[in-house]
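Posting here for the record, re: magnesium ion.
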Amino acid sequence: MSAADLAQVAASGLLIGLLYALIAAGLSLIFGLMDVVNFAHGELLMLAMYATFLLNRAAGLDPLLATPLIALFLFALGLVLYRGLMARALTVTVNRGMVQIFITFGLAIFLRGAAQFAFGAEFRSIPKSWLANESARLGPVILPWPQLAAGLIAFLAFLLLFLVLRSEFGRALEATREDREAVALIGIDRERIFALGFGLGTGAVGIAGAALAAFYYISPDVGANFALIAYVTVALGGFGSLAGALLAGILIGEVEAFTAFLLTPSLKQLGMFALYVAVLALRPQGLFGARQ
Amino acid sequence: MLEVEGLSGGYRHLPVLHEVSLRVEPGEIVAVLGANGAGKSTLLKAIAGLIGRSGRIRFAGEEITSWPAHRIARRGLHLVPEGRRLFPGLSVRDNLRLGAYARRGAPDRLAPLEEVFALFPRLRERLDQRAGTLSGGEQQMLAIGRGLMTAPHLLMLDEPSQGIAPRLVDELFAAIEAIRQSSRAVLLVEQRLAEALALADRAYVLQSGRIVMEGPARDIAADPAIRRAYLGM
Ligand SMILES: Nc1ncnc2c1ncn2[C@@H]1O[C@H](COP(=O)(O)OP(=O)(O)O)[C@@H](O)[C@H]1O
Ligand SMILES: [Mg+2]
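Prediction output follows.
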């Protein structure tokens, strides 16, 4: 493996890793805030990809320009989903754990079925975009522009998330996460914080979906694989930790890229799961998770 | 300022309060006394909107019986709960600022900080420390401080002296006295009967979820029969 190969593989791993990290961040945010694993996370990613595809086909909107719109759309959808579904699931007193699993699981199955119905099972891709077939050359490394743009967008989205969490709203989110009953005593409407937090999580996955749609195939079950990686990323980084999600996402992107290069692409997930098992054996709370 | 009439409430399958009536006027300190398990904490939680309740609660001219807890808090009725319920992973500074979060539109929302530091100077020295690492006494001070940051008209304190080093108790009761102002009242639940009765203007005695006695604190403190019968002193 030459130095040029090394740089090329590392750069590709970093770019896809940033996307993994952003997807995981949304999942982790929701889990950290309300102790709910959103099993429809991958399907929301899929939805964002189809929405990007439709905007492109109907209005010729470039995925790059569509990204903020899709983010807003998924944020709003998150608010609606929280108020309509999650809020109810959180207040049940009987079989709470089961109800919460099945409510998001059911949503996942519904979204997948709906996509199948509306778009059929075939693979789609964005027919035309500004950056398609363009590459950037950095020394010996050649990077396709759509991937490069997606990585940059994911990185910017991460910065934005960090800023939001450092704001006063972020503090209220943190307080709600620490004691969801006590916040009412200081006048904080927990339901509002939960809804906004859920929306932030789905908004993050919306950004990832739009960026991903620029270069990845789109199908009703495209989300499943990304969701699986996101669960591993969250567990690896530490549940509820944003910095952990960023680091773990990049790590998984790199491990995947190097496994694919050194072994064979069909084994690329082997490295990821090996890493996961190794970390869990040594540090069960994940890289950034607090010890129980 | 606060008028409670025929208030009943409790937990699932466990009614605790039975037709409780009480009132608090502006500038008063009112104590609620009673044995362990009498329902004192339940009473404060019912007023604060944390548990199911029926009856009538009026506060500052508004009927708040069916309001959610966060709305009651925003109206200026704040409960410093049993066990304090701070945000232990957040700094002292963040805990205090969060008290003012609901008033984040107001330019003077952090103004109560001055009063908090005047009452509890040691909080100023601990601003960057995590709330969970404070001593019991400091945590209670922070809980009251966070409550003052909500700019309350009525502060309800549930056993503030619980778990506090004896040498800090006097300081705490002095602070409660200082919190009472012409327009701000205190509703105090305490196990330290002598101190509470010395501080309060009036007192109610709660027994098995019912008010069995009410009157000027001085009279209750002076009557050995009452103290034996209801308070086990
Ligand atoms: N969260 C709760 N769930 C169910 N029952 C409770 C709860 N809290 C208190 N109780 C019961 O309500 C009654 C009154 O308790 P409480 O209001 O805490 O009394 P006090 O504060 O006067 O010691 C007790 O019988 C207690 O066991
Ligand atoms: Mg109590």
